[in-house]
Specification:
The chain has helices at 33-44, 54-60, 76-82, 138-143, 167-173, 182-188, 191-203, 209-212, 227-238, 243-252, 256-259, 261-269, 274-291, 298-321, 325-340, 348-363, 371-376, 381-393, 399-410, 413-426; strands at 17-19, 49-52, 69-72, 86-89, 95-100, 103-109, 124-125, 128-129, 152-155, 161-163, 175-176, 206-207. By secondary structure, the protein is an alpha+beta fold. The strands form 3 sheets. Strands 1-10-9-2-3-6-5-4 form an 8-stranded mixed β-sheet. It has a two-stranded antiparallel sheet with strand order 7-8. Strands 11-12 form a two-stranded parallel sheet. Helix 7 packs parallel to helix 9, helix 14 packs across helix 16 (348-363) and helix 15 (325-340) packs antiparallel against helix 16. The longest helix has 24 residues, at 298-321. Bound molecules: adenosine-5'-triphosphate and magnesium ion (MG).
Length: 449
């Protein structure tokens, strides 16, 4: 990827604005003890030491930062000499990780204009690892960052704020603005498109028109991003408490279809509201759990995001090829997962439970005999039940079936026996074949319509 020359771009960059301590709101009381230790220690050794990036941005906005990143003029080796508890990571651009138990403070040496932007440990080019330690000045480091609001430095020497990119103005205006020529910077690293959406949602900021406009056209560039990196970015996008808004924005810019083409195809073709309702409800549900500090698993999240193509294929395989429900679900889920994997690499520890959640959907329809008891002990029962409830709420699954399982879980053994017994008397369920398998969800009869 070609590097742009940040100094020749269109962003108005004057000499830095330096805001002295009494004139800004960042207080050391809000910086983690470990980050302060690293900053002070580097300073003691006569190196420059600054807090930078999301930490500074979030403190200025009164949010609690997720982590504290530090930028310095010390080389990684010099950082290692200062801290015993330090490891160097990254093959191409080395970074120092200072460990305090489980807390890690990342210390990066100022990058110059030759350094690569991709994450340090994923810099394979044509299969070759290229070490590119092009260090630079703080100005160069600032101008290589993505958005102006992410390029602010808090200087531990005099507690001032340093702004090379008009980031303070953009923070005040609630504006996401790319440093340099937006299109060129997206081309250098297309993940910046996802970051623009993420920060817009997370901070409630608007994306500046010149930064926004290329988003509509450059989605295809995401094809070149390693699938594992996209998975990491998607977790940040969807597991941060504002996943529904992220989904809507990604669709607005045509980026969602790049990441989930099979789902997008279903959302586009479907004239009835169900699939969007289902994904939206699933994401809203995850957002709510996040807000309540309840655990959310990527398995459930991806099960939601990919459900519609799985469901449609499941129906096709049953009606068109006469497969049993369990078999059709296995085949459909394996097909859709394999299609998705080259785009967004979902690690096995999440993709296996994701597929179990799907596999349990037809099994949850079997409420007679011993089967419901066995299902209750399945490690994925709870997630599969939650998934069924979501489907019922979205109007796709039978609300009575969901209610049956809700009751069954809390019922006495006597009540349970009578519930499975009446379920047995209701079986076998008659399956209506639908001519258009893609459009059958309104019939309300569980998966197959
Ligand atoms: P948060 O940690 O809240 O998600 P952040 O802004 O700290 O947000 P990080 O991914 O932690 O994001 O990156 C730290 C900083 O590194 C950013 O603020 C930005 O200055 C710079 N940065 C990260 N990714 C890129 C990128 N793809 N291109 C340019 N600069 C980047
Ligand atoms: Mg950060």
């Amino acid at each position: 990827m070609q590097e742009s020359d940040p100094l020749s771009d269109t962003t108005p960059i004057a000499s830095p604005v330096i805001v002295p301590r009494p004139e800004h709101s960042i207080s050391r009381a809000n910086i983690s003890e470990n980050a302060l230790k690293v900053l002070y220690r580097l300073r003691q050794e006569s190196f420059k030491a600054h807090l930078v990036g999301g930490g500074v941005r979030d403190l200025l906005l009164g949010h609690e930062p997720k982590d504290f990143d530090i930028a310095t003029d010390a080389t990684p080796e010099q950082v290692r000499q200062v801290f015993r508890n330090c490891r160097l990571i990254g093959r191409r651009f080395r970074l120092a990780h200072v460990h305090f138990g489980r807390d890690i403070i990342e210390v990066a040496t100022f990058r110059g204009s030759g350094a690569d932007d991709a994450p340090a440990d994923r810099c394979l080019e044509n299969g070759m690892i290229v070490r590119d330690n092009s260090y630079g000045t703080i100005e160069e480091d600032a101008l290589r960052r993505d958005f102006t609001i992410n390029a602010l430095y808090y200087d531990i020497e005099d507690f001032s704020l340093i702004d090379y990119a008009n980031g303070l103005e953009d923070i005040q205006a609630g504006r996401i603005r790319m440093i340099g020529d937006p299109e060129q910077r997206y081309r250098e690293d297309p993940v910046r498109m996802l970051r623009a959406v993420r920060f817009a949602c997370k901070l409630g900021f608007t994306i500046d028109p010149a930064t926004e406009q290329p988003l509509f056209a450059l989605g295809r560039l995401l094809e070149d991003i390693p699938a594992a990196r996209l998975f990491d970015e998607l977790l940040k996008l969807f597991q941060s408490g504002y996943g529904l808004e992220v989904f809507e924005k990604l669709r607005h810019y045509g980026l969602f279809g790049q990441l989930f083409p099979a789902t997008e195809e279903c959302l586009k073709l479907e004239d009835q509201a169900f699939p969007i309702t289902f994904v939206s409800r699933g994401l809203a549900n995850t957002d709510k759990r996040m807000q309540e500090s309840k655990p959310v698993t990527p398995a459930f999240l991806f099960a939601v995001l990919l459900w519609e193509p799985v469901r449609q294929r499941f129906n096709q395989l049953q009606t068109g090829e006469g497969m049993s429900a369990n078999e059709a679900m296995l085949v459909a889920s394996s097909e859709i997962s394999s299609q998705q994997q080259p785009l967004v690499a979902i690690p096995k520890r999440y993709s296996l439970p994701m597929r179990e959640i799907w596999a349990l959907q037809p099994r949850l329809e079997q409420c007679d005999g011993k089967r419901p008891y066995r299902l209750l002990t399945h490690p994925r029962f709870r997630a599969a039940y939650d998934f069924l409830v979501l489907r019922a709420e979205a109007g796709e699954a039978d609300p009575e079936l969901a209610a049956w399982w809700t009751r069954f879980q809390d019922a006495s053994s006597q009540e349970r026996a009578s519930m499975t017994d009446s379920a047995r008397r209701r079986r076998p369920r008659r399956r209506r074949k639908s001519a258009k398998s893609g459009n059958d969800h309104q019939s309300g009869n569980e998966l197959s319509g």
